[in-house]
Amino acid sequence: QVQLVESGGGLVQAGGSLRLSCAASGSIYRINALGWYRQAPGKQRELVATITSGSKTNYADSVKGRFTISRDSGKNMVYLQMNSLKPEDTALYYCNADRVIMLTDKIVLEVWGQGTLVTVSS
């Protein structure tokens, strides 16, 4: 019933920037928290950044000062602005929604996007 669709991934040179977008669709009233995770080749998935309905943010140490997460509650969207990209940022980036409140008051605990690939060349 809830689907996350991502866009914005691609190939960029080190030092460049990308902006990832994630749109949540469905009969949604409110999303408690949204976030971005990533999984590099041969590594486990890790948290990149999260943002709550109160706009409280949390970032992985590796991206602090370079990445910025934001959300548009009216459109049920979340963004990840990535600046000063490094080759080690190369990964499949996933959008995540935590506690999606539906118009029926039903709560969906967790939803994941399909992932969008970010490749940073040196």
Total beta strand runs: 11
Mean pLDDT across the residues is 96
**Order of helical and strand elements:** EEEEEEEEEEE
Distance between the termini: 41 Å
Give the radius of gyration.
Answer: 14 Å
Count helical runs.
0
Helical proportion, percent range: under 10%
Report on the biggest sheet: 7 strands, mixed
Q: Stretches where pLDDT falls below 50 for ≥5 residues?
A: none
Shape: elongated
Kindly name the structural category: mainly beta
Question: What share of residues are in beta strands?
Answer: over 45%
Describe what is shown at a glance.
This protein has no helices and eleven strands. It has 122 residues and is an all-beta fold.
Characterise the protein shown here.
With 122 residues, the chain is mainly β. It has no helices and eleven strands. The strands form two sheets. Strands 2, 4, 5, 6, 9, 10 and 11 form a seven-stranded mixed beta sheet that branches. The chain has a four-stranded antiparallel beta sheet with strand order 1-3-8-7, with no helix packed on it. Strand 9 and strand 10 (107-112) form a beta hairpin. The model has no long low-confidence stretch (mean pLDDT 96).
Reconstruct the topology from this structure.
Blueprint: E1 3-7, E2 10-13, E3 18-25, E4 28-39, E5 46-52, E6 57-59, E7 67-72, E8 77-82, E9 91-102, E10 107-112, E11 116-121
Parallel strand pairs: 2-11
Antiparallel strand pairs: 1-3, 3-8, 4-5, 4-9, 5-6, 7-8, 9-10, 9-11
